[in-house]
Design a protein that fits this description.
By secondary structure, the protein is of the alpha/beta class. Helix content is about 45%, strand content about 15%.
Length: about 375
């Protein structure tokens, strides 16, 4: 009888993973458990259902607390994990968090979600970025395979990692299910994601202000997601200053990091989802919104064209006037909204767990 190939999935980083990375780990684990090949034995480093997602470390504004986690992470990745791989005689280890062990007895597949650390170095604290990108580089030898989230990300990573094979694999999003809501009561304009410069949240905020002035409607803007990125809260401070200067306290909600149930509530009660980023590696909230039948407006950038095609409305990136016009179009045309919902729901069927794990397994 042929021995099964042993594939070890390192999910240690799930303890502090934010937004898209957290969703990626969940989807990878669930896809492997549900649709993984019978010829493969999947081993998971931790049970994600028993892990308490600890935002205390990664989203802390205190540097010492963030570095305590980094020390724990380093010990796990470079000492404990290699020992476990050796003891279990693992054929392949999958690291979905950019970093692989430097010394490793198994073949390595590393998920590098995008090239943003290298493309926008000034968007990240310099000491942390230099340390983390060095750790990524050290974990890659010439035989390491890189998996990324889109063709767009693949092109970007090819300029950074010239010696490694890079495969684009679309991730899935099956965490949420559609619920019946009071459609007439939908008053939220939603964005879910970290407060990073490239997210262009001020563009959305300015467009929302203009929308309120022109239509005089009682809508609320929800900016959900972690507000301290590696301890850097400059974007949050700019947004809070704009809210104060224009007296938007009563109509802009900043709930911080939200769990699955809270996210589902906002999605299901949103009039629209707006994604104003100037760059993304994939953009999992886009898939979540389409799956939950929320009409979407995106900045006109290559990654969104690749993922959404014609199932969303596009606006010129960083152009709040154009974004406001698109928001008005969507509000004033039920026909347009229904058309986008229909197209979006059809498009999102492509991004399922079966396709996700089968594309990964082809690489083995």
């Amino acid at each position: 009888m042929k021995n099964k190939k042993k594939v070890y999935v390192d999910v240690f980083y799930y303890k502090t993973a934010l937004s898209g990375l957290k969703t990626y780990i969940e989807e990878l684990v669930n896809a492997a458990k549900t649709y993984g090949s019978d010829e493969i034995e999947y081993i998971f480093s931790h049970d994600i259902n028993k892990i308490t997602n600890n935002q205390f470390f990664i989203n802390s504004k205190f540097r010492i607390i963030r570095w305590i986690f980094q020390i724990r992470y380093f010990v796990w990745k470079q000492i404990i994990l290699p020992i476990k791989l050796l003891i279990n005689k693992v054929d392949i280890v999958i690291c979905p968090d950019y970093v692989a062990p430097i010394i490793c007895s198994s073949k390595k597949i590393v998920i590098i979600h995008d090239n943003l650390f290298w493309k926008y170095p000034k968007n990240y604290p310099s000491i942390w970025r230099n340390y983390y990108t060095k750790l990524i580089q050290l974990g890659l030898d010439s035989k390491t395979t890189i998996v990324t989230t889109s063709n767009y990300s693949k092109k970007g990573l090819e300029t950074v990692f010239k010696k490694n094979k890079i495969y684009p694999v679309y991730q899935s999003s099956e965490n949420f299910s559609i619920q019946q809501t009071n459609k007439n009561g939908k008053k939220y304009i939603l964005h879910v994601g970290t407060f990073e410069k490239r997210k262009s949240l001020l563009t959305l905020l300015k467009a929302f202000k203009k929308l309120k002035e022109e239509l005089n409607v009682d809508y609320k803007l929800v900016l959900a997601g972690s507000t301290y990125i590696n301890g850097d809260n400059k974007i949050l401070l700019k947004i809070e200053k704009y809210i104060a200067e224009h007296n938007l306290f009563n109509c802009v909600l900043i709930p911080g990091y939200i769990n699955k149930n809270k996210a589902l509530y906002f999605y299901n009660n949103s009039l629209m989802y707006v994604f104003p980023s100037i760059d993304e590696g994939f953009g999992i909230p886009l898939i979540e919104a389409l799956k939950l039948k929320v009409p979407v407006i995106c900045s006109d950038i290559p990654i969104f064209r690749e993922i959404a095609e014609d199932s969303v409305l596009y606006f010129d990136k960083q152009n709040e006037i154009n974004l406001c016009e698109r928001m008005k179009e969507l509000i004033q045309s039920k026909e347009l909204s229904n058309k986008l919902v229909s197209k979006g729901f059809e498009r999102v069927q492509k991004f399922n767990r079966y396709n996700f794990i089968k594309e990964i397994e082809k690489i083995y």
